[in-house]
Design goal:
The chain is an alpha+beta fold and about 150 residues long. Helix content is about 30%, strand content about 25%.
Length: about 150
């Protein structure tokens, strides 16, 4: 069955029958221990969509959601430039037999560029598959992201 990549409302993604399982797989593979289990704030995604600050992308095989991504746009005040960021970018292990991840990223690039962003930032877990793939498709490491949990 063909995989369809498309921009879609957060509510559509969140109502997919396997959404909770997909989020659990995402958290297990890409999560930060101190953040705990995935607890998706769908109303926040709705608010981002309504404010024109966030766009959701779904990867579908029939009615099954196999991946997702969210594009956010932020004006970087120090540079006075609009930058895109692809957050919550994930494809289930069972859905990685094709180009779903590449096509989600390409759709994110299209969304950001069409809205005036100068580029797209993507974070990847250190030494992950994505960390290896992104430099091969023109992305370059510019910074390291560090996290410290608070007691």
């Amino acid at each position: 069955m063909a995989t369809v990549i498309r921009e879609c409302p957060a509510d559509e993604i969140a109502s997919a029958p396997n959404f909770d399982a997909l989020c659990a797989e995402y958290a297990a593979e890409s999560g930060i221990t101190e953040l705990g289990q995935a607890n998706v704030d769908v109303p926040m995604y709705r608010a981002m969509e309504a404010a024109g600050l966030g766009w959701c992308i779904g990867a579908w095989r029939g009615d099954e959601l196999i991946g997702f991504g969210v594009v956010t746009l932020t004006k970087l005040p120090h540079f006075s430039k609009l930058a895109g960021c692809l957050i919550s970018y994930f494809v289930a292990a069972a859905g990685r037999d094709g180009s779903a991840g590449t096509r989600i990223r390409e759709e994110a690039e299209h969304i950001a560029k069409a809205r005036g962003a100068v580029g797209l930032m993507i974070s990847a877990p250190c030494e992950s598959r994505l960390d290896v793939i992104l430099p091969r498709v023109g992305y370059r490491a510019t910074n390291r992201l560090y996290f410290r949990g608070f007691d």
